[in-house]
Amino acid sequence: MSDVDGERPVTSVRVLLAEDQGMMRGALALLLNLEEDMEVVAQVPAGDQIVAAALDARPDIALLDIELPGRSGLDAAADLREQLPSCKVLIVTTFGRPGYLRRAMEAGASGFLV
Asked: pTM of the full predicted structure?
């Protein structure tokens, strides 16, 4: 079943991306948008922009980098849990530092990927 313009299924998963590296964010958005049942509905380069973008775009999933300017992805995940509990959070990082997984789960993340 497609939406009105016939490009995406009505059941498309709506994704917010938060990544400070523009090339990485763009590549992730491109790859996710290639999937028939996924749609990137918001992209932000800083942690302090995540909640506002999520409240505006109403994503199903927020894919958050841990280390972001303005506010960490972990702090933003906790904010999303309170302000938009229907949005699942996946944390991604290139830094597998001790305590990150525990902190991500405590913040309400549904998944964690190094």
From this structure: 0.87
Phi, psi of 103 (to 5 degrees): -65, -35
Tens digit of pLDDT for each residue in 43-100? Answer: 999 999 999 999 999 999 999 999 999 999 999 999 999 999 999 999 998 877 788 8
d(CA 86, CA 83): 9
CA dihedral (16, 22, 28, 31) in degrees, to 10, reads 120
3-state class (DSSP) for residue 102: helix
Alpha-carbon distance of 31 to 50, in angstroms, equals 20
- pLDDT category, 1, cuts 50, 70, 90? very low
As to burial, measured by CB atoms within 10 angstroms (0-12 exposed, 13-18 middle, 19+ buried), residue 94 is exposed
Order of strands, sheet of 61-65, starting from the edge strand that comes earlier in the sequence: 38-44, 13-18, 61-65, 88-92, 111-113
